[in-house]
Amino acid sequence: MTGVVIAGVGMHPFGRFEGVTTTDMGVHAVRAALHEAGVARGGFQAAFCGTAYGGVATGHKVLSRLGMTGMPIVDVEAGCASGGAALMLAAGALAAGQYDTVLVFGTEKMPRGIIRSSFFDPWQEEAGLAATPSFFALRAQRLAVTSGVTKDHLAQVVVKNRRHGASNPDAMFQKEITPEEVLASRVICEPLHLFMLCSPNEGAAAVVLRRQADSPGSPPPRSPPHVTLAAAVLRSHLPGSVLSESTPMSGLTDDAVPSPTTLAATAAFEEAGLGPADLDVVECQDTDAARELISYEEIGLCAPGGSAALLASGDTALGGRLPVNPSGGLLSKGEPLGASALGQVVELVRQLRGQCGDRQVDGARVALSHTVGRGANAGVVILTR
Amino acid sequence: MRTMVQPGLFTDGEVPTLLGSRCTACGAHHFPRHDTCPYCATEDPVPVELAGSGTLWAWTAVTSPPPGYQGEIPYGFGIVELPEGIRIIARLTESDPAALAAGQPMELRIVALHADAEGNDVVTYAFAPGAP
Q1: Cβ contact B62–A132 (<8 Å)
Q2: Which residues in chain A have Cβ-Cβ distances shorter than 8 Å to B28?
Q3: Which CATH number is A4-112+202-228 given?
Q4: Model ipTM?
């Protein structure tokens, strides 16, 4: 346990917002989180800002609009896991006694179309080897071999998440979709169709963290229920897997190299003193439909090879044993890199407080957030109430 | 004239090869060449030419031009396993996924991507379906 509680959360919806800047969205989310936490100017001693495309001093630009106190502000880039990385740094600083209250936020305005990443060398782009969705497609094809995942399963992931997202006012797509519509959308990279891929987009999310010992009122207030940060872990990759999110140009024929997600999830469960069987609700990386199923296996929600069966059981849909992506996931919300992990955390805090209306997971007490992407970077956060 | 998309990745002769390296301590093969083994951190792996044929492990086709790419679409994209125990990410000459099968033999080719400003063909490595 980190000894850190969530004092407040805030969010700018994910979508496309013409004329709204990265800074505007950050201000919106941060203001909401500070307000909820009852924190005024000077009420936090440091800020960590997740962003990948925001540019120099994104965090400073946001906080300059809200009242500066000279506090340290650190921008954090860890690809899709940027927000998770920021959260880990903040929790560590609080646990070390460096601060008592810290602001963590992420804000992002992604370019349109296939994400151009400075991660790739120019020759890789020129040779057509920087085609991000094609790496997703290769993973999906291997998942068909190892786990019996069919195109119908991939479509079902989209149908599930879009059904969840239909009741999330912060999601980009708030409309259900049928399996037929998913499979009728054009093929981007076989076996992935357009609607099986999330949209890079825009948004912001913010969380105020406080050291438990310094939280006002003991025992903690009951309404809304007190949410504790049980673990916040970031891991990178081990070399060897050709399909790792580190996108190497080669790998070994050894299939036993643990993934970044497995490394992060294992460490997070250990830090929290919990295991997959304790979870009530999960938000996981669903950049594409196959990625959600890979996440089931890598986090340990099922045994290796068991993701198609877990999906088909209905357990991961709202109303099931362990709902995954009740927010609608990235497939409904879209993915603003620096904000996506914290968007998951905001959703899960609200789930644990029972504030999610039609998409509420009844009685949720233990929640896990997972993001993974370029680097490789994998972030796993566990929250409890 | 032909110009390589990046020097040091492959040879462009009658029998092309990929330029890799092999760790003298753990025996792992690398591509592209490394000056430190990524698996055991031993320095100065020996340069090697990797086998020019292998088997298909995973494949798809790219149907929209990715960032920075000026060549034709669609094109094949996949992973070929070489006998050295290494899997290589590469373009494939076959762009119809239905025309390929797991484990089929694949052979290294050097293929043209596009012409540069001087009219030279920019070439890179790719794998083509090979004789069984």
Answers
A1: no
A2: 252
A3: 3.40.47.10
A4: 0.97
